[in-house]
Amino acid sequence: MVLSSEFLLKTQFLQVRERYKKPRRNRDEHPVVRSSLLHTPLSSRRVLRDFTALTNSVSHFPYDPRSEALDLSAIRMATRNLGGFLVLVLAFTICEAASVFQPISDSHRSAALELFAPVSGSFGSLEETYEALRTFEILGIDKKPDGSSTTCHSVEETVGSSSSTPKDLLYALRVNRILKCKVNEENFKGIVSMLKAAVNDASSLLDFYYSVGSLVLIKEQSSYADLLLDDADGIFHSIKALSQSDGRWRYSSNNPESSTYAAGLALEALAGVVSLASSEIDQSAIGTLKSDILKLFDSIEKYDDGAFYFDEKVVGARQHHGPLSTTSSVVRGLTAFASVTSGNLNLPGDKILGLAKFFLGIGIPGDAKDFFNQIDSLACLENNRQVKVNTVLGSDAPPLTVKLVRASVSGSKDVSIENLDLKFDKESASHFLDVLPKTVDVGKYLFVFEVVFHDSEHEKVYATGGRTQVPIFVTGVIKIDNTEIAILDSDLGSIETQKKLDLAGHNVVSLSANHLQKLRLSFQLTTPLGQVFKPHQAFLKLRHETKVEHIFVVGNSGKFEIVLDFLGLVEKLYYLSGSYDIQLTVGDSVMENSFLKAIGLIDLDLPEAPEKAARPPLQPIDPYSKYGPKAEISHIFRAPEKLPPKELSLTFLGLTVVPFIGFLVGLLRLGVNLKNFPSSTIPATFAFLFHLGIAAVLLLYVLFWVKLDLFTTLKALGLLGVFLLFVGHRILSHLASASAKLKSA
């Protein structure tokens, strides 16, 4: 189990700032304590500090003190319930329901209701139903979807059916343990003999797991007496025969591949055999199994933040499981076996703690199976039948004191604080230190904490994580004095121009220089206690009007000073004369008033660049500049040419109509008529279409003159031409045929 205990160093004038280092699962954090130390009385200066001191303990799991070193992985804000984790994993029959506080929150409950939403009043299979109900039970969700009547009916059918498999019976009995359905006692009696026979005939690990697990659940839910296994030793050795030398297990004797996930199933099955044994199991076999558990923990894997987990090795694709399900299986098996055996499991406390950290660091899984494995495993790590302690899910710790062993500047052996007990606030359940010595100045410190139990008997039950080292950044406002900028003569070193700067204000200086002169900038930095302060970064930047930049490091020799000799810098400056912006950057993680500030302009007069001198690099083009407004295009159209007189245009129009009039007159003189227009229906239709096509061509000419362009007109004329060719051929063929008949007559 994981027991949360929050450590705080509270303050009046100080604020908290957090910095996160995120290696893999976003849990490593480094706190920064802001301090307005200045000249206030040190007795009134307080440091607010919130951190997670992860310690661990194992009830009845004696630990090796050499292995209790613990990595601090989670640093959170003071409002979070964090702190030392005390891990307690032993002596509980089955992981019972637990009261849930932090770090399991309402977000988990909302996610559970969303992931385990029933469809048509059912969660699906009995396995899925059990996972949903078990999750609701652990999280204390009262307003869960109501499907108990349908589910109980399915449970009763499964328990009462002689054709049900041990797997179906196992999950039906698990569901029944939660819902307490009214299962007929006779049904239990009917399946006991079948399950016993299945145990005796089992040839695979899963056969043992489902059959033994079902018998254990019947023992809990029924008063039926004939449940004990007569040959428990033989069954124990049959399961043990599937184990491997590295602590992993095989699913069957025919399968050479070993599995870490199967090891968890085997431990659960063996725990069930021990609880159902009619006589005591051979203790030598129990001892051998404990050694196998230690070998299994030798293969455990670790994240950078101290979280431990089990991962499956190369196993068939059908039997492969991810780190979450594999670790969950081992935790369930380990806690189940520990609950039914006496003696101690000599497991390192940091690895038990690391398992809890692994489940807590996952966040909220988006898969129902993963969500169940996370919550169920945390519940297994939380409960203990012999010692009533709530931990992983965030309950209170046993009486203890958090002691600040020492605090010193990082990299220094000088101790600033030593042997101070943090005070405990019952209302906020937090430990805090309200006063710091006067010798504490801004900087990075290493605080060393340890947990001391009020009751010495607790040391036999819990394995603490030893001393926890926490990096603390005490920040403050750094004083900036004697800031000057000057132009010096290169030959004599005399000051030609010198100006004072107020870096806290907004004044900007304007300077000018040539290549025979120098630029000097100097300033001093002191801490609130008057000590010389050396920031991590101090840069001076010159930025030409063409956006070419040059950065120089400001040196520190008691005070910060930089001298730029322009004669030696002409090549670096690419012989670019003109205006340069001057920018000063001073920054540090403990300097609250770090700044990046434009302090002035300098107009440089540099010599002309030689032919072979280096050219300034091309400046990067802003990729978003192409989306900006474009330059306005100015265009003057050509003045229109002078038009002819109106009378001339009308005269020309009249001349163009004369040929058409002559055409009409010619038709009249020739005596054009419609006597030869076909009288038959089909020839008359083609004749009509032919004349209609001629009219369409004439109309197209008019449209071309009025609005259509040449290409559109030609396309339309091409279509009309094909149409006229077809109907004209038909009507002309008819006329030729009629004329031939007339001549022959």
UniProtKB/TrEMBL annotation:
- Report the residue ranges that make up the Ribophorin II N-terminal domain in this protein: 104-382
What membrane topology is given? Multi-pass membrane protein
Q: Does the keyword Kinase apply?
A: no
The pathway entry for this protein reads as:
Protein modification; protein glycosylation
Listed A to Z, the keywords are: Endoplasmic reticulum, Membrane, Signal, Transmembrane, Transmembrane helix
From the record, give the transmembrane residue ranges.
648-672, 684-704, 710-732
Ribophorin II C-terminal domain residues are: 637-737
The record's Gene Ontology biological-process terms are:
protein N-linked glycosylation
Q: Which cellular compartments is it found in?
A: Endoplasmic reticulum membrane
Subunit composition?
Component of the oligosaccharyltransferase (OST) complex.
Task: Return the similarity comment.
Answer: Belongs to the SWP1 family.
Task: State the protein's name.
Answer: Dolichyl-diphosphooligosaccharide--protein glycosyltransferase subunit 2
Provenance organism: Ziziphus jujuba var. spinosa
Q: What is the lineage of its organism?
A: Eukaryota, Viridiplantae, Streptophyta, Embryophyta, Tracheophyta
